[in-house]
Amino acid sequence: MNKSTNIPTQIDYDGLWKRLILAFFDKFLEFFLPGLLLEVDLSKAPEFLEQELLTIMPKQTAKGRMSLDKLLKFWTKDGLHKHIFVHIEVQSSREAGFTERTFKYFYRIYDREGKLITTIAIYTHDDVPEPHDRFVYEYQGTKLTYEFNTFLVRDADEKELEASDNVFALVILACKYANHTKNDVELRRKFKLKLFRLAIDRGYSRKQIEALLSFIDFVVYLPPELNQALKVEFKKEKQKEKKNMEKDYVISPTFDEIFFELIDEKFAYLKEATEELKKVAEEQRKVAEEQRKASVRKLLKINVVPIEDVAEIIGISIEEVLKIKSEMDAQN
Q: Could you give the count of Cα atoms lying within 13 Å of 265 in the half-sphere of its Cβ?
């Protein structure tokens, strides 16, 4: 099958990684820089120093590059040092002079921002340069070696990644599968479906699932018609699971529509929606009117479905939906 699996250049690669890091910053540290977990205050989200990075290396941070440069500021626990700066580099292709550029980042961050700095370079491609973890300068008796942390997707063990409960194991697995299937679109489709299953079954929050599945959908790219076919296959799987669930829970047709509309739209929230479905089942046995109101509230809270579509899905008028929305706004 001669279908292109090349990633579209208009996709925001930088934004996808940033979204993941922000949603799972504790898991990022746990997976890539576990030693920092003892020093970082995880109760505070890290700060992305976008403007500072533009000032430090303006020519290196242009949009459209298939790589990621991020500078994060974490707060410390001990109070001896207020901040820790983490420089993250994600390389999806070989870049000439990369290790030298990483060194330049370091000394400029050191000079401008602070003393506690660490760097992690994540090589998501297979063509890894040597040396990949250091920059060495030597001239007439003067020598400098700058070493930094690295992670090579090429060398990651597939079975260990599948067994890990860390979300970045699935991120790395997605990169690994993308590398292995550049010329085999059918195998890529199977791997992508496998990643979707793993992501849904981990029990992450809706926000986390959306960030993860958006990343997978981009990195393990499929042509539009094949991607749509994969969605249909995935939906059929979940329909079968739902039928098995109906043996133990009473589920109304109204909520059935809501449940599968969410799958069609996002591929996300499936795990969370299933749990919500079980809770609502008890309410469904009480009063049909309250059930419709609960359905409307649920869709309005998701905040991705237009009010007109909410009315059509639930089978009530737009005026009734607006009335329920007004009640919710009044409570807030």
A: 16
pTM: 0.66
Q: Name every residue whose Cβ is closer than 8 Å to that of residue 202 and which is 6 or more positions away in sequence.
A: 165, 167, 170, 271
Task: Report the C-alpha gap between 17 and 22 in whole angstroms.
Answer: 9
Between strands 149-152 and 117-123, the pairing is parallel
A 10 A CB-CB count for 328 gives 14
Q: Do 198 and 162 meet the contact criterion of CB atoms below 8 Å apart?
A: yes
Question: Of 204, 42, 180, 164, nearest to 124 (Cα)?
Answer: 180
The whole-number pLDDT of residue 28 equals 93
The domain segmentation of the chain, as residue ranges, is 13-219, 224-331
pLDDT above 80 (res 174): yes
For residue 131, whether the previous peptide bond is cis, meaning omega lies within 30 degrees of 0, is yes
pLDDT, tens digit, 9 for 90 and up, residues 81-93: 678 899 988 887 7
190-235 pLDDT tens trace: 888 888 888 877 777 767 777 888 888 888 888 888 878 887 787 7
> What is the DSSP track for 117-145?
EEEEEEE-SS---SS-SEEEEEETTEEEE
